[in-house]
Amino acid sequence: MNLALAHSRARVGVHAPAVRVEVHLGGGLPHFSLVGLPAAAVRESRERVRAAIVNSQLEFPQRRITVNLAPADLPKEGGRYDLAIALAILAASGQLPVMALADCELLGELALTGELKAVDGVLPAALAAAAAGRPLIVPAPNGPEAALASGVQARTARTLLEALAFLRGQGALPRSERAAPDVAPPDYPDLADVRGQASGRRALEIAAAGGHHLLLVGPPGCGKTLLASRLPGLLPEASEAEALETAAVHSVSGRGVDLAHWRRRPFRAPHHLASAVAIAGGGGNPRPGEISLAHNGVLFLDELAEWSRYTLEVLRQPLESGVITVSRAARQSDFPARFQLVAAMNPCPCGWAGDPSGRCTCPAESVQRYRAKLSGPLLDRIDLQLAVPRVPPEALRPDAPRGEPSAVVRERVLAARAIQLARSGHCNAAMSQAGTETHCRLAAREQRLLENAMAAMQLSARAMHRVLRLSRTIADLDASADIGHAHLAEALSYRLLDRGAAGA
Questions:
Q1: CA-wise closest residue to 124 among 113, 112, 115, 132
Q2: 24, 121, 169, 307: which one has the fewest Cβ atoms less than 10 Å from its Cβ?
Q3: 377, 316 in Cβ contact below 8 A?
Q4: Cα–Cα nearest to 78, from 49, 105, 43
């Protein structure tokens, strides 16, 4: 037999499209050609495969070898196809039954010794293999990650010879197993550590209950970062589907998956000097940025007004759609980016505008330029904008009363989320316009209040819909079927920067 076929998987964003490895042995002088739009690392697999076969005491065919990676228009990169190429060559040369490769998928990079080395993006490949109903052979270090995919039949091999013996029916390969789960309770920071800041605690609870974005504005040291770090401890536990989505993003990022904590919601806090590419994702072969690494979790942006305006504008599309599209000259990739934004900023360059101490010396023009870094369309997408005052010294005493712990607040959040899931299947922040019109109806009195507020605060239609969803969440926390006057008034009070009174 001069022709053999093997199956593998490429990496395109968080997807793993199928790649068919076709090997033909022809007559003529010995030559090894690799076609199918391979990158440099893939072309180098010729030497890795040749050396791995020879050093495994197998016969490398001295013929004209043509390897085609189909489809030809799909860019290929990395050493993930080495195992499939090597086994297909062995099958084409009669050292392995051709039919042994028909119903399995192969993934792994070969060392010159024939040892299998780990590759990235294994979880998306395992999910795709499970959907296709094919077993998967991966390097041993990738086994625990592949086992995260429900329903996958994944086996692990340490060397080319082990994989060959298994396909010949001369040996067994161990099944991949998940790493030991983290059975300890999540060590999220507790909300009880936050002294004072009753309004900030309330806003945090509302944000957690409805999945709303939050902006905290206040002087240095007032507890903005402290509040933001407590949000993950208030959120519901991620479902397995959500956790797999998040793990798939981390798998293709090059950073790997934290197998012990893969069920936890991520909390990302990039520095304000991070570039737009670091936030959105990019590279010649696009990889996810911070907004995708925060998928199904929290993205915390401290010192929001110090960020580049260009970088902040990158957030506008994913805040609305939950997806970021990274386009480069040769390819385009979509990454999920359904995160909850928590941002913090000072009210002015010196940080003390509106403080009772009167220590702010910033001229009005300087304050205006500082706040103008946040565009109106971006602020429209942030549901809660809250002024966080300086904590009085007496509230910081060791014997001062502590606030409610996260566990108590989380119970109320879970109850509100249950109401939302029963109503529409998702949290209020993800409610569509049609859902908003259906589930956020107002009585005549509340409608007049909303219209008057829109005129006085010059709210856009987008901001109006977000106010309605926010008021719906506040009503859910009160277990109220209708949005009352107090619910709507509280929601309107959180449009701080629309009132032009940040820090006041």
A1: 132
A2: 169
A3: yes
A4: 43
- The pTM for the full model equals 0.90
In angstroms, the CA 379 to CA 175 distance is 50
CA–CA dist 416, 180 (Å, integer): 32
- In our burial notation (b when 16+ CB lie closer than 10 A, e otherwise), range 277-314 reads ebbbbbeebbbbbbbbbbbbbbbbbbebbebeeebbeb
Return the pLDDT at 208.
97
Q: Is there a contact between 383 and 340 (Cβ–Cβ < 8 Å)?
A: no
**Residues 6 or more apart whose Cβ sits within 8 Å of residue 285:** 11, 39, 75, 77, 331
Domains and CATH numbers, the chain: 3-168 (3.30.230.10), 191-427 (3.40.50.300)
The residue type of 344 is A
Q: Which residue has the tokens 């304000």?
A: 272
Q: Cα–Cα distance between 446 and 489 in angstroms, integer?
A: 9
Token readout for 241 is 């589907």
- The per-residue pLDDT for range 55-86, each reduced to its tens digit, is 999 999 999 999 999 998 888 888 999 999 99
